[in-house]
Design a protein that fits this description.
By secondary structure, this protein is of the alpha/beta class. The protein has helices at 15-20, 35-45, 47-79, 84-131, 136-140, 144-185, 187-234, 237-241, 244-297, 303-344, 402-409, 432-438, 453-458, 466-475, 479-483, 502-514, 532-549, 564-569; strands at residues 26-28, 346-348, 365-374, 377-386, 391-395, 417-422, 425-426, 439-442, 520-524, 556-560, 572-575. A hairpin with a 2-residue loop joins β6 and β7 (425-426). The radius of gyration is 33 Å and the shape is elongated.
């Protein structure tokens, strides 16, 4: 009977959000979205920042490679010969390249951060907009924790990879430049430097295969742990009242231990991977110093060349570590992009084309032999008409399909047979924007967002005046409550409206729906948490709202309820429990 809090509570806010919140039945289909396409789109968005960061990175690499060369020349041509002017000249060269190094690194880091933030922001908004087009049944297959993990942790992995991409590109060029510089010193030293490259590459291939499986396990464990934390934080007094919090704590402890196990495994693998690539060039440096030292003793090389070689090999150690880190980040980003692409491949079965037929301002809402499925239960066929200006009450036993009917009337899903029309126009042929403007649904458990009462009433509608807000609160029987608040509509409601009672949250949702000025207002047991007196007052004022509406655009109300007081106020009562 009840709908999920996040299903339709905000469909009555702004037209664009209402269109996005069409909760369609969805399936994973092999569309364009893939691991590669997600990464390519991120690169396309941040291409300017990456190019600029890479340019600064080249300046950084120029300074890095040139400093050891200047150092060697300064020793051989200045220090060793006692030439003060030459020594000062090479020292100035080192200072100049050091300045270039500093400017290059600063610019590279700054622009890389801009690029990564821009692409992450675009991807985050894209994921959010896409998820809002999907039905809760599809999203529940992933779990809230899993979705949060994909939208936060996986997105951050892609962001980190993009931020490190300029240093990866320029680092590869610097790596090659160092090997060329060593080759100009001595061919044997070049062989020693190059010998470390294939070993590091082989380690990278082996590591990439192992880290992929480890990342999968960490991501799954992170999703489970996030979900258990959400359950703990949102546990209601009903759960606490039956001692359920102990079960939630135990489940969280189990999932946290599992996450810790997988994280430690990933850390251990990362520690081995980080140390071995650094060790190989260091070993090459030691061998090179020994070979180079013998060459110096044999007058086949100079001390300055040996110093330059040692400095370059030390840089190889650092850059090898950096490159291996970037390789790991690429592997993590590819896996994360695959998980995000899985979400983006979800497609709604609702036709989201806005180019449908326009709906008139008012008209009858009719269900013609509609049939739908709820789990394995078939609901229907249902024939149902809501005349203009009527209050229609729908009742029936739990599980008979009342909520499914309301979702069909609001076109939050399409029937498997039959159709729903407004003013004779099939809702499937109508522009979805028009459907959302004409028909507004308030679920039993509406969603409120963190903020004030006014924030929740407006929900993006900055054009609404305070007078309109107060009038909607009056119709929703919320005015007396607002009047007792010291800050009125500026009173915070807490996380998901946690500072309000269930009945107050329902009345806020009704007021928000009224501000949409719909032709048909659907209340899916949206008065169930109110006391009888407040419910009666709200229904009486809704009658006043309908009659007042007649002078402009006639309206209708459809209520789902079991309460006799609600059924008595209706023009028509539909009992779905009767055959």
């Amino acid at each position: 009977m009840s709908t999920r809090p996040d299903e339709a509570g905000v469909t009555g806010s702004i037209v664009s959000s209402a269109i996005a919140l069409t909760r369609a039945s969805a399936t994973i289909t092999p569309r364009r979205e893939s691991e590669r396409s997600v990464l390519e789109q991120c690169l396309h968005v941040s291409r300017t920042g990456i190019v600029v960061a890479t340019a600064f990175g080249l300046l950084f690499q120029l300074g890095s490679v040139a400093i050891p060369w200047c150092l060697g020349r300064g020793i051989d041509r200045g220090v060793a010969t006692g030439e003060l002017g030459t020594t000062v000249g090479w020292a100035a060269g080192i200072a100049g390249f050091g300045l270039a190094l500093a400017v290059g690194e600063c610019g590279m880091r700054w622009w890389a951060r801009i690029a990564s933030d821009e692409s992450a922001d675009r991807l985050r908004m894209r994921i959010s907009r896409h998820l809002l087009t999907l039905d809760t049944g599809t999203l529940d297959r992933f779990g809230h924790g899993d979705i949060a993990s994909r939208g936060i942790r996986d997105l951050d992995l892609i962001k980190v990879w993009i931020q490190g991409l300029p240093s990866y590109i320029t680092g590869m060029l610097g790596f090659v430049a160092i090997l060329v510089g060593i080759g100009l010193l001595d061919p044997l030293l070049t062989v020693i430097g190059i010998a470390t490259v294939p070993l590091v590459a082989l380690l990278g291939i082996a590591h990439r295969r192992r880290i992929s499986a480890v990342n999968n396990a960490v991501a799954d464990a992170q999703a489970d742990c996030t979900e258990s934390v959400e359950d703990l934080l949102t546990a209601t007094s009903a759960i606490r009242g039956i001692g359920g919090e102990a079960v939630l704590v135990e489940r969280h402890a189990t999932r946290s231990a599992d996450l810790t196990k997988h994280v430690l495994r990933a850390s251990r693998l990362s520690a081995v991977w980080t140390s071995l690539p650094d060790f190989l060039p260091t070993l090459g440096t030691g061998i090179g110093v020994g070979v180079g030292g013998l060459a110096v003793l044999a007058d086949r090389a100079t001390i300055g060349e040996l110093v330059a070689f040692t400095a370059w090999m030390t840089m190889l150690v650092v850059w090898t570590g950096t490159l291996t880190t970037r390789t790991t980040q690429l592997s993590q980003a590819r896996y994360a992009a695959g998980r995000i692409a899985e979400l983006l491949r979800l497609r709604s079965q609702l036709r989201l084309d806005l180019a449908g037929r326009s709906l008139p301002a008012t008209g009858k809402l009719t269900a013609h032999g509609v049939v739908t499925r709820r789990d394995d239960h078939v609901v229907g066929p249902i024939d149902f008409t809501v005349d203009v200006g009527q209050v229609v009450a729908v009742t029936g036993p739990i599980g008979c399909g009342k909520t499914e009917l309301m979702r069909l009337l609001a076109r939050l899903k399409d029937p498997t047979a039959g159709n729903v029309t407004f003013a004779g126009i099939d809702l499937k042929d109508a522009a979805l924007e028009d459907v959302r403007e004409r028909i507004t649904l308030v679920p039993q458990r509406p969603l409120l967002v963190s903020g004030t009462l006014a924030d929740n009433l407006r929900l993006g509608r900055d054009d609404l005046s305070d007078q309109q807000l107060h009038y909607a609160c009056y119709i929703a029987a919320l005015d007396s409550f607002v009047g007792t608040l010291p800050t009125g509509l500026d009173t915070p409601v807490g996380e998901r409206g946690g500072m309000l009672s269930g009945g107050q949250r329902q009345r806020v949702a009704v007021a928000r729906a009224l501000l949409r000025d719909p032709s048909v207002l659907l209340l899916d047991d949206a008065t169930s948490a109110m006391d009888v007196e407040t419910e009666a007052l709200l229904l009486a004022r809704l009658r006043h709202w309908i009659s007042r509406h007649d002078t402009q655009r006639p309206a209708s109300v459809v209520l789902v309820s079991h309460r006799p007081g609600v059924l008595d106020t209706a023009n028509v009562v539909v009992d779905m429990g009767r055959s």
